[in-house]
Write the structure tokens for this entry.
Amino acid sequence: MLVLGDAHASDPDRRESLLAHYRRLEPEHVLQVGDLECYELPVPTWFVAGNNEEFDTIEALRNGETTGTRSVHLLASTAATIEGVRVAGLSGNYAPTKYDLPRSELSGGRRRHFTHEDVERAASLSDVDVFLTHEAPTGLLSYGYDPGCEHVDDLLEALSPELCLVGHHHRHREAEIAGTRVVSLAPAWERYYELDPEALALESHEVDSSE
């Protein structure tokens, strides 16, 4: 199973980098951790929304509408079984001033955030093997401060997934947090990853710039 980090595919060069993985690797299924910005893809792709998306499209996908999209499936505090793997996701990023609002009160670009409702709904999921999130938990990354989000920590505690895949930060980092292997993914133009559905082992591959 192909796994990809942030794509930022509204940029033509980034879009080409994204689609090149599909052409060259010919995956059957893909997981992606946000800032996708491309919603017509060659094979079924499950993703969480990031903070850079086309938010009218994301809102439509939240509501089960697929007009103008192809082969994309949004994980927004929902789960799907893919190649026998139960994959769940939390869409959006954290904004302290918006977290306690109902999602219905978010508008425009503020729809990029997750709310307490989204976290509570995600926490109620069961039997999760792999958890996708755009926002990192604490203890994974450092910029002289910890950019992680305690609400993601709470979800790892509640769900106990085998593997958590993180976007947003554009760097590869790994840690074990609350008994879960957590991997921050490099962006799609730098690396791609392959997930073994049986062992839930994740293998990283650097992009060959000569290809």
